[in-house]
Amino acid sequence: MDFVSPVLEVASLICNCVGDRADHLRRLSQNLKSLRAETEKLNNVYKDVKERVEREENLEKKKRTHVVDGWIGRAEAMEKEVNELLDRCDEENQKKCLGTCCPRNCRSSYKLAKMVRKKMDAVAELQSEGSNFQEVAVPLPSPHVIERPLEKPVGLDSPFREVWGLLQNKQVGSIGIYGMGGVGKTTLLKKINNKFLQSSIKAFDIVIWVVVSRPTNLERVQETIRSRLQIPDDRWKGSEEDDKAAEICRILKTKKFVLLLDDIWEPLDLLRVGIPPLGDRNQSKIVFTTRSADVCGGMAAQKSIKVECLEEKEALSLFQAKVGEDTLNSHPDIPKLAEMVAKECKGLPLALIVIARAMASAKTPEEWEINLQKLRLYPKDVAGTENDLFSVLAFSYDSLKNEATKSCFLYCSLFPEDYEIPSEQLIQLWIGEGFLDEYYDIQEARNQGGKIIQMLKHACLLEVGTTLYKLKGEYLKMHDVIRDMALWLACEKGKKNNKFVVKDGVGLISAQEVQKWKDAQRIALWNKTSIEELREPPCFPNTETVIVSMTKSVRMRFTFPSGFFTNMHVIRVLDFSNVRIYNKLPAEIGNLATLQYLNLSGTMIEYLPIELKKLKKLRFLMLDDLSLDGRLPNQMVSSLSSLQLFSMKFLYLSPVDEIMLLKELEQLEHINDISIRLTSIRSIQRLFESHKLRRSTTSLQLALCRGVNQVQLVSPSCIKELLLERCDELEEVKIIHFEKQVVPSKFPNPQCCFNHLLSVRIRGCNKLLNLNWLIHAPKLQYLQIEHSEIIEKVIEDERSEGSEIESDLSVFSRLIYLTLLNLPKLESIYEHPLPFPSLRRITVRGCPKLKKLPFDSSICMSKKLENIIGRQKWWDGLEWNDQTLMHNLNPYFQPLRSL
User: Fold this and answer.
1) What's the CA gap between 836 and 8, in Å, rounded?
2) What values do phi and psi take at 658, rounded to 5?
């Protein structure tokens, strides 16, 4: 009876697998399926969280939270544990008895079944946790102090030592620095700020710099402090002033801070801002600058320090440095005359600098004697009053070459204090005003405008701003003293106070105030919400300019009273850019027969009145970034018979309307500057098939072009700016010289170049691989490539291996800014080293395969290089042909986290 033993063995196993154990074993197969499914869900959640974390870290400069970082680690460990458990279960499954479904070892199988059940619960819990993250990353902490640009100060050693000593004094919390305009108060404050950069000075947690200016804008002050403290949006947006102050106060109470407030014109209520009272507990400090000793008293400064004018020796040293050795050495008598001129400036640094620049080109004693006599006609005593300062500074104005240059200078005073003016916008306004009418061609007028800007900069009447290059050339600003002087001159030295009306600050403009503007020549309203309704249309018989605009930090709705534009019979310029005028433009603007410049960019206007057809003298029409409901009025553009410049960037029309617009533009006799956005291949072909349109187009945006796999750019062309955006099917860009196609990989020759192309931006064109056509833009200054999944090389050298670069080719010889963002396959900018003689900045982010930069220590590097920006990990992973190059470039590297 040999068959009995196996039967009894099976029976015994079955009897042991009963109750709870039997239930676990019965559900094991189903639980394994569930575990696999839940693990797959967890893996998907893990991928979503990881992608979200990487996106915020790479694009938003944030750092993952510790909670999320821990969860990612646990999720990765869980996946490993689950895989090991599943492998064990598979092995156990292979050990069934006699080919049956019964496990050979019920005890071992039971343990595995329990582990599967527990692991299911753990996976589900981990999955739930990952699905409910509200925040995965937080902003990186800002540096405790941000360096301010500063030339070597002259004559400020004594007040600096005094202020710095007070900052070490535990008994002094607030310090006021006062003195007349242009004496060096801001320079002193910058020197104090930068002193905290020294690694040995770690007495304070954070140094906060705020420019207050006039009129005092509490919201702007709070916004600047909020930015430095990195207060998140959910604690800020939509909050009232008091709530914002409370949040600032809550954070500052936990820190030992230094608050540097520059250019205060009236006592600032620090409690309303959110600055906690200073006390012995945290030893925080407040230092501010002002022109008035009364403000020091109003701010309850514990110590007030007056910045005096320079001593005679220091003043002469500064004056000589700004005049230049070439001029001083041009005749033996000039050094003595320079000393006499410097004395007339009474030691005021700004006056010394301005007048020195005005004298820099005077190379004969006779010129110096004549100018010295002119200077002495103004009051000598410059201490104490604004008029004395203006009189000295006006000497530089009087020295400007012609009335056009003087008008251009005075015009800059229409912009708010501390506002950085795009040079391109400023020059276009000058042209619209008629200051450069002797140059009928817009490009010639622009060139002359550029020369005027250079003259004003050299005379220190304009300064270079700090705003980064943004396709608008450089940004400019006026020192507040210079701006006040310019307004004083524009208003005929204060005799006609409303000749130039400049208002800055959010609020309602009363009807009574509008009545005072009847003699105004130019009106500029900044950050105003509306004008009070008037009983009858106002009369502006002399008004040539109306600018109504908002700064970037303020986006509020503006409303005009009815009939406001009815009686403007000599108006030339209307600029409403970036002001929120909703729905429709006032129809009476169509009756402004003398209007030559109309800028409606960014106004939120949905409809354009058909009456605009009547603007027969209009030369400039800007419609950038509008959201028109429908199309442009039929035949409106073609009716503007004097139109020279038409701009329609970031404005979408249907393909049919694009064709109609191009036809209308082609009918205009004087058009020679077109900026346009196109979305269809027919529109692109129409543009390049027309000699007139091709010759006139200076800015071309090709966006969302469906079905377009090839773009043919016709040379010669006047395009200055080119944007290719989200053209998902675009594979190739070809250069066509009249009827002859240019092979993309060939290097440029004078016959086949885009000699005017200065800026190229390529964004989200995921099939565009070959960018060799860029070599046909020898004057390219700005190149930005981002969000492309296949680009491997910016420029690929397809010549025979071993060939030398022909005189460095001039490839990228004019390039100033190079930006490469989120290009995962990018390996090379260019295969050979290039000199980059004009390069100032390279920014690289999200390009993990880019291991080499096209530099070589044997090639002379750009002396203009300012920084190379990227992730520290990327920089550390770069490969260098020689260590000398690495050491030479290392000082220019700026990690992204420090920005």
Assistant:
1) 89
2) -65, -45
Distances 429 to 71, 433, 547, 640, 646 between C-alpha atoms, Å: 56, 6, 10, 19, 14
CA distances (Å), 84 to each of 78, 80, 112, 148, 679, in order?
A: 10, 6, 11, 57, 54
Residue 7 pLDDT > 60: no
Q: What tokens were used for 253?
A: 């109470």
Tell which residue, 353, 665, 306, 626, has the closest CA to residue 482.
353
Name which of 388, 292, 375, 288 is nearest 348 in CA terms.
Answer: 388
Q: Quote the pLDDT of residue 180.
A: 67
DSSP-derived pairing of the beta strands 759-763 and 782-786: parallel
**Quick count: other Cβ atoms within 10 Å of Cβ 208?**
24
In the predicted model, what is the mean pLDDT of residues 340-359? 80
Distance of alpha carbon 796 from alpha carbon 802, whole angstroms: 14
Helix axes 185-195, 157-167, angle to 10 degrees: 50
Distance CA 626, CA 634 (A): 17
Q: How far apart are CA 391 and CA 379, in angstroms?
A: 7
How far is Cα 766 from Cα 769, in angstroms, rounded to an integer?
8
Choice among 230-244, 273-287, 742-756, 777-791 with the minimum mean pLDDT: 742-756
Give, as one character, the DSSP assignment of residue 860: P
Q: Considering only CA atoms, which of 9, 25, 8 is closest in space to residue 17? A: 25
pLDDT digits (tens, 9 = 90+) for 249-301: 999 999 999 999 998 988 999 999 999 998 766 789 999 998 777 788 889 99
CB 581 within 8 A of CB 606: no
Q: How far apart are CA 395 and CA 387, in angstroms?
A: 13
CA–CA gap between residue 778 and residue 757 (Å, rounded):
8
Amino acid at 555: R
Is omega for the bond preceding 277 within 30 degrees of 0, making it cis?
no
Query: Angle 312-323/334-344 helices, nearest 10 degrees?
Result: 120
CA angle 884–890–894, rounded 5-degree value: 165
d(CA 705, CA 683): 10
Q: What percent of the chain has pLDDT over 90?
A: 36
Residue 6: per-residue pLDDT:
54
**Residue type (1 letter), 154:** V
CA distances from residue 733 to 423, 696, 710, 741, 769 in whole angstroms, order as listed: 31, 21, 6, 11, 10
> How much is the pTM?
0.65
Are the CB atoms for 269 and 299 separated by under 8 Å? Answer: no
Task: Write the burial class of residue 608 (CB in 10 Å: 0-12 exposed, 13-18 middle, 19+ buried).
Answer: buried
| CA separation for the pair 153, 180 (Å, rounded) | 17
The number of beta carbons lying within 10 Å of the beta carbon of residue 6 is: 11
Q: What does the pLDDT look like over 781-834, one tens digit per residue? A: 999 999 998 999 998 865 533 334 444 446 888 999 999 999 999 999 988 888
Give the CA distances from residue 854 to residues 75, 641, 808, in Å, rounded to whole numbers and listed in that order. Answer: 41, 50, 12
The answer to whether the CB of 251 falls within 8 A of the CB of 226 is: no
3-state secondary structure of 457: helix
Integer CA distances (angstroms), 327 to 189, 338, 347, 618, in order: 32, 10, 21, 46
The whole-number average pLDDT for the span 364-389 is: 58
- Going by C-alpha positions, the residue among 547, 543, 549 that lies closest to residue 566 is 543
d(Cα 762, Cα 839) in Å, to the nearest integer? 19
Task: Give the helix, strand, coil percentages of the chain, each rounded to 5.
Answer: 40, 15, 45
CB-based contact 186:262 (threshold 8 Å)? yes
Task: Return d(Cα 34, Cα 117) in angstroms, integer.
Answer: 9
